[in-house]
Amino acid sequence: MKKIIILTALGTVLVASNVMAAGFHLREQSAAALGNAFAGATAGAENASYAYYNVAGLTRQKGTQINMGATYIAPRAEAENVKWADGTRGADVNNIVHAAWVPNATISHQVDDKLTLGLGLNVPYGMITKYDAEWAGSDHGITSKLMSTTVTPMAAYKLTDKLSVGAGLQMQYIKARLTSTAGRGAFDAALEGDTFDVGYQFGAMYEFNEKTRIGINYRSEINHKLKGDINSDKAKAAAMLAPGISALLNQDISARLDTPEMISVGAYHQLNDKWALMAEYQRVNWSSFKNLDIVGVDTKSLISRTRENWQDTNFYAIGANYQIDDQWKLRLGIAKDQAAAKKAQRTPRIPDSDRTWYSAGLSYEYNDKLTFDIAYTYIQAKNASMDTDLTGNTDGRRVTADFKNSVKLFGLSMNYKF
After folding, report:
1. Which residues of the chain, if any, have pLDDT below 70?
2. In angstroms, how far is CA 15 from the centroid of its own chain?
3. Could you read off the pLDDT of 347-368 as tens digits, one per residue?
4. Are 68 and 82 in contact (CB under 8 A)?
């Protein structure tokens, strides 16, 4: 039984590390698109950074361009009314999710009137959550750190004056470190692993005229196989557990972790000289993420299986641009974002809930070559509750809590045309 308790906790940790912004996807890859809450991002193609949302839009980037930017993500999550199964209150926990910078860069080069090449550098997944080591749910998780880096070579081709297509190869590296306790805080356990795998994306853009265009983009699922190790306090583990079980907690491991496929559709319409309107829809297929199996490399055995059963999510956004003068442009947007993990799947490492995005931004065209973008977004998340039990019974390891979440985003970028 203790084996099940400990290793199920560790398995849950790996899954939870990937949860950020309705699942684990970080949309914040363009300051300009952030100003519109990503409304119309699949059709916008206003600068090179939009290639992350639709590679076909590269055909609208003339000459050679480079876009460099970053988003500061300042989340706040609090766990309140923390209780054990017997109703005993635990201490509330503040500042669970930690702030971080998310950088991005894209370079594009127009080979001729038809072909444009590009290279993107993005951080599409990542999060840091940390609880006090003594908190009531420490067996369920203390620290989760996830870092990812994706390099994407891209190409876009203009098939006709109206239709462009494009494709990119996602070369993705993920690293995770996850800690928890076992035996209701009796000893510590940590899991660490990394992986490098490849996926792809392709998109299309159709321009009805100079004012109106639509775009569609597909981003593939990437099948990751993390390789790493499990480490625990050997002395305490040996004292509490049978030798064979203790050995399971100190060995090399592997685990499958699949990032979801995503389908996006966007529209952009220039209403007049001052106003432009845009809309976006994205479907993220989290339902493919059903189980997480952790396999011991040394013992060649299935250490744990965590059932997740996440749900597919929808993202909707509408936005508008207002051209203030020849240099300044105001951006506005609002979005609705569904959570992948509902109450039955929510864990301390996944304080996830439905959320609403409120965004605003400014673009400043310094000259014909240089443009700056800044953006601010406030994400209001619904209050969420958790009722999780590592063992499926009420032996004291079941923990309940209520979460209050919100996020502030600050984006900035520079686009330069050579």
Report:
1. 1-24, 80, 84-87, 89-97, 127-144, 180-189, 232-249, 289-293, 303-309, 341-352, 384-397
2. 12
3. 655 656 788 999 999 999 999 9
4. no
Q: Closest Cα to residue 279, out of 293, 290, 268, 294?
A: 268
| Nearest by Cα to 364 from 349, 374, 376 | 374
| Contact between residue 27 and residue 52 where contact means Cβ atoms under 8 Å apart | no
CA dist 51 and 38 (Å) reads 13
Residue 42 token pair: 């699949």
Show Cβ contacts of residue 372 under 8 Å, excluding neighbours closer than 6 positions.
363, 364, 366, 412, 413, 414, 415
Residue 210 φ then ψ, to 5° = -65, -20
pTM: 0.81
The pLDDT assigned to 76 comes to 77
Q: Quick one: tokens of 220?
A: 């593939």
The 3-class secondary structure across the chain, one letter per residue, is CHHHHHHHHHHHHHHHCCCCCCCCECCCCCHHHHHCCCCCHHHHCCCHHHHHCCHHHHHHCCCEEEEEEEEEEEEEEEEEEEEECCCCECCCECCCECCEEEEEEEEEEECCCCEEEEEEEECCEEEEEECCCCCCCCCCCCEEEEEEEEEEEEEEEECCCCEEEEEEEEEEEEEEEEEEEECCCCEEEEEEEEEEEEEEEEEEEEECCCCEEEEEEEECCEEEEEEEEEEECHHHHHHHCCHHHHHHCCEEEEEEEEECCEEEEEEEEECCCCEEEEEEEEEECHHHCCEEEEEECCCCEEEEEEECCCCCEEEEEEEEEEECCCCEEEEEEEEEECCCCCCCCCCCCCCCCCEEEEEEEEEEECCCCEEEEEEEEEEEECCEEEEECCCCCCCCCCEEEEEEEEEEEEEEEEEEEC
Take residue 401 and report the two structure tokens written for it. Answer: 């809590």
Query: Which among 192, 193, 201, 108 has a CA at the least distance from the CA of 150?
Result: 201
- 358-397 pLDDT, tens digit per residue, is 999 999 999 999 999 999 999 988 776 666 664 443 444 5
